[in-house]
Write a structure and sequence with these properties.
By secondary structure, the protein is an alpha/beta fold. It is 49% helix and 24% strand.
């Protein structure tokens, strides 16, 4: 796909999934993002997401509606595997956008909104530990140099 990729996924520390979003997606890019997201749910394994939205653009209403529709469609898979999502957002306008999205479709999973990566990772590690995935939590902690 030409140009900058809208979203990258890093599952190298699975069951931690790192998602980084840059700019605003075109409708085809957004569909690609949704399909790739679904592939992680289809693993049917518990995991936690850290979503780096520091460079995200505001989604147009059409794509926000599509996100709500997609989330509703995949709710069963999401409930089965998603331990939580830590959103990294440091601007009020994007916090507002996320709040609007969650108002339209309240999440069925735990989440937190933080301004920096470190508290997002710390929260994700706790979610992994609470799910009994202590070895994975410790691996993530060591990888990022987080304190116990």
């Amino acid at each position: 796909m030409p140009g900058t990729r809208f979203c990258t996924f890093d599952d190298s520390l699975w069951p931690l999934l790192m998602v980084r979003v840059v700019g605003v997606a075109s409708p085809p890019q957004f569909e690609e993002y949704l399909e790739e997201s679904a592939s992680f749910y289809r693993r049917r394994q518990p995991y936690v997401i850290v979503s780096d939205l520091l460079q995200v653009g505001m989604l147009p209403a059409e794509l926000r509606r599509r996100q709500v529709e997609w989330t509703t469609l995949h709710d069963g898979l999401i409930r089965e595997s998603l331990l939580g999502n830590a959103f990294i957002i440091n601007t009020p306008i994007f916090r507002l956008g996320l709040n609007v999205l969650f108002h339209l479709s309240p999440p069925t999973w735990p989440y937190v909104v933080v301004p920096r990566m470190e508290p997002a990772l710390a929260w994700a590690v706790v979610r992994l530990e609470e799910a009994g995935l202590r070895e994975h939590a410790e691996r993530v902690r060591r990888h990022f140099g987080l304190r116990p």
